[in-house]
Amino acid sequence: MAYKRPGGGLTTAQQAAKFLGVSVLAGGLLAGLSLPAVGALGLAAKGTVEGFDKLPASVEQPPLSQKSTILDKDGGLIATVYARNRTVVPLKQVAPAMQQAIVAIEDMRFYEHGAVDLKGILRAVNANAQAGTVQEGASTLTQQYVKNIAMEEAGEDQAKLAAATRQTLGRKIRELKLAIQVEQELTKKQILENYLNIAFFGEQAYGVEAAAQRYYSKPAKDLTVPEAAMLAGVVQSPSRYDPLNDEQEALKRRNTVIDKMVQAKYVTPAVAAKAKAKGLGLKFSSPRNGCITAVNGAGFFCDYVRETFLQNPVFGKTAGERKKKWEHGGLTIHTTLDPKAQRSINESIKKHVYQTDKVAAAVSMVQPGTGRIVGMGQSRPYGLDPKQHQTTLNLSADQKMGGSRYGFQVGSTFKPITAAAAIEEGMPLTKVYPSPNKMTWKSPIRTCGTNWSNTQRETTQNETREEVGPYGLAEATKKSINTYFAAMISEYGICPVTEMAQRMGVHTGNGGKLSQVPTMTLGVADISPLTMANAYATFANRGVYCTPVAIQSITDAHGKKLRVPKTACSRAMETRTADTINTLLKGVVSDGTGQLAGLSGRDNGGKTGTTDERKNAWYVGHTPNLAAAVWVGGPGAEKPKMVNITIGGKYHYKVFGGAVPAPIWRDAMAGALEGKPAPSFVTVPLPRPEPKKKPGDDDRDKPGNGNNGGLLDGGLLTGGTDGGTTDGTNGSTPTGGTLTGGTTDGTTTVGATDGGTLDGGLLTGGTTGTDGGRNNGGGTTGWQ
C-alpha cells in the first residue's frame, strides 16, 4: 500500500531546499551521499529544487517475504519453506536493547532529525576530508529503510537488485526524496519496526526475529545487551562481521556497538564493561528450510503442494504472480495429508524395499469421493545426494508436478478400465472369448479417429503355455488373461476405452493423451502412480471421478483466507458398471493374482500388473473408503529387468505384481485404515465358472507349493475340508485352481449354488461352510 501524506510539516521541496543548500555550501554531496566529489556538480546538472520536487515520491512497501508453514490435515507440521527466512514481528516483541543497539550504530540521532541528518552530513564531510577517502557516510536509518524496500522488491532478480544497490547519483537523490516522504507518513517507531523486519542480518536471516533464532536460538524479545549489539553490528556488512566466518572481527564490531550505546546514553559504562567482558555466546541454529526438511517422509508431497500453488490459476492469473506470492510467503497451508497413512506408507516401503536396492518403490493414496491425497511416499528419500540414493524426483507424480518424464508402463492394472468401457458398451457379464494362448490382433479396430489396422500382423499372447481358453470375464480378470482382453478391445473398440480412461482422469505422465492403440488394454501407456490410484478411487466411489487435491485451506500472513482449488467430481460410468468392476476385483484378491494384497476383515479389490521384461511391477487396489497404487521398478532412465533380483533383502526369481507390490499395498493400507470404518462394496452376481479351467497367470507368484491350499503352478490348489483332501483327491479335481468337488462323498459341487457371499467372500449355497473355504495357506475352494 502506498504511503499517503497526512499533511503538516515542511513540504518535500522545502526539505530538499534546506538539504541542498547545506550540501552545496559544504561542497559536500560527497559526504551526504557517499559519492565522488563531482556529486555536487551532478546535482547542479540535475536542475533546481523544483526539478527535485518533480521526481517520483511514491513509496510502496511490498509484503515482506517470510516463511510459510505446510501442515498436515491434523495441523501437524510437515515443513517450513521460504524464499527468505523471515518472521515479521511488531516492535513490542523486539527487546529494547535491540532497538537501542540498531539506532546507536546506524543512526544515533534518529529521533532528532528528519529524513536527512544535516549535522551528520557535516560530520561526515569533516571525517572524510581528514582521511582523504570516504570513511563515514551520513545515510539515515530512514534512507536505509527505503533502500531495503527496493532490494526487497528486486527479490531474486539480479538486474533489479543491482539497480537497487548501484552507487549512482540518480538513485541516491530518489532515495532521499522517498525517505522524506516516509518521514511525513510514518512515526519513528513505525520506521524502526519496519527497518528491523526488513534488514538482512546475514546467514540467510532476514529481519531481527529470524536473526535472533539463527544466532541465539531465541526470540528477539529475549535478546540481551551483548547479543543485541552483536546482531546490530552485523547489518552494515553481513559477510565481514559474520561471527561464523570471523569471530574476532564480529567481537570487535559488537564492542563498537556497545560503545555507541554508551555514547547514546542507552547503557551505563558499567553495564557496557560487563557486556564487553562476555564472549559472543552463540547458540547457532542451522536453517531449516524447504521440503528437504519435511517430516514423516513427506518431502515429495511437500513438493507437490508447492507445484500446485505455482501452477494453479486460482493462486494468480500468471506464473509470475503466483511465484511472487509463494516467495513472499507468510502462508499457513493446511493440506490433505493424513499423518497416519503417511507413516504406514513409509513403514511398508521400508519393510519391503531398501533405499539401496537397484529398483525403487512408490506409493500414492487417495480418498474416494473427495480426491484428497492422503499419502505419498517412495523408497528413494527426498534429498540432493545421489550417493545416498536420494532424489528430488517424485516417482508418484506427473512430470509437471515434479515427477518422471513420462510415468511408468502400468501393465495389467489397465485391464479393469477396458472392462468398464466394454460393459458400458453393452458387453454381457456372461461374455466368453476363445482366448487362445496366442492370437493376431483383429483388424480394423474402431478408434475415435482413423481406425487402427494391423498392417504388421502384430500378435499378443498369454504368459504361459497353459493359459488357453475359453475364458469368461471373472476368471479372465482373476488370471489376467491377455488374449481375453485383447479380444474385448477388438470387439468393442479402442475409442470407448480411451474415452472411459479420460473420464477417469487417466493420462500419460507427461500430461498427454493415451495413444489409441489396442495394446493400451495391456498397459503399454506410461502413467504415474497417483493417476492410477485416483482412477481406482473412481471404482471405489461407484463410478464418480474426483480430481485430486492436496490443499484444504490457506491463510496469509494477516490471517486472511485464500481461495484454494476444489475437487471437481463427475460421473465416469454407470453405478452398476463400477459395482461390477469392484466385484471382479474382489475376486482377484480372494482367489486370483492379488491374494497377497488381501486385507483381513475388509472388502478390498485390486489388480496386479507386470510389464514386458518385468521392468515395472504394480498393484493398484481399493476399499470403499481408500484407494492406493504401488509401483516398483527402475527410477531412472535405466530400467533393470526384475529377474534374479533381490528386493528388500528377499530374492526373487521373477518379480510379479502379485509378489512385491501387493504386500507393500497390503501393509500400507492396513496401517492407514486401522481404526477406521470397514464398509462393504455393493457386489453384482457373476456367472458361474466355465467348465474348462487352465492354471497360470501372467502376474502370479508362488507363495505356496501346492499343499494345504497354497498356489499350485500358478493356479489355486483344489480340494478342501469334507469335499476332499488337500491334494485334490476324493471328490476334488485340480482343474484351473478351483474346487470342483463337493461334500464328503464328492458328489455335490460346493459353493456352486445360488451365489452370494459368506465371511471372507466365500460363496453360499454350498453344503457346508467349511467346504469352499480357505485351507491352511490361502488356496480358495468354491467359486467367487
From TrEMBL:
Enzyme Commission code: 2.4.-.-
Record domain Penicillin-binding protein transpeptidase: where: 362-669
GO MF annotations in UniProt: glycosyltransferase activity
Feature: compositional bias, Basic and acidic residues: 689-703
Compositionally biased residues, Low complexity: 727-737
Reactions the enzyme catalyzes: Preferential cleavage: (Ac)2-L-Lys-D-Ala-|-D-Ala. Also transpeptidation of peptidyl-alanyl moieties that are N-acyl substituents of D-alanine; [GlcNAc-(1->4)-Mur2Ac(oyl-L-Ala-gamma-D-Glu-L-Lys-D-Ala-D-Ala)](n)-di-trans,octa-cis-undecaprenyl diphosphate + beta-D-GlcNAc-(1->4)-Mur2Ac(oyl-L-Ala-gamma-D-Glu-L-Lys-D-Ala-D-Ala)-di-trans,octa-cis-undecaprenyl diphosphate = [GlcNAc-(1->4)-Mur2Ac(oyl-L-Ala-gamma-D-Glu-L-Lys-D-Ala-D-Ala)](n+1)-di-trans,octa-cis-undecaprenyl diphosphate + di-trans,octa-cis-undecaprenyl diphosphate + H(+)
Glycosyl transferase family domain mapped to chain residues: 76-261
Sequence segments annotated as region (Disordered): 444-467, 676-784
Record's keyword terms, sorted: Carboxypeptidase, Glycosyltransferase, Hydrolase, Multifunctional enzyme, Protease, Transferase
SUPFAM superfamilies: beta-lactamase/transpeptidase-like (SSF56601), Lysozyme-like (SSF53955)
Enzyme class: transferase
Domain of life: Bacteria
Biased composition (Gly residues): 706-726, 753-784
Classification via InterPro entries: Beta-lactam/transpept-like, Glyco_trans_51, Glycosyltr_51/Transpeptidase, Lysozyme-like_dom_sf, PBP_transglycosylase, PCN-bd_Tpept
Matches recorded under PANTHER family: BINDING PROTEIN TRANSPEPTIDASE, PUTATIVE-RELATED, PEPTIDOGLYCAN GLYCOSYLTRANSFERASE
Protein name: Transglycosylase domain-containing protein
Source species: Streptomyces polyrhachis
Lineage: Bacteria, Bacillati, Actinomycetota, Actinomycetes, Kitasatosporales
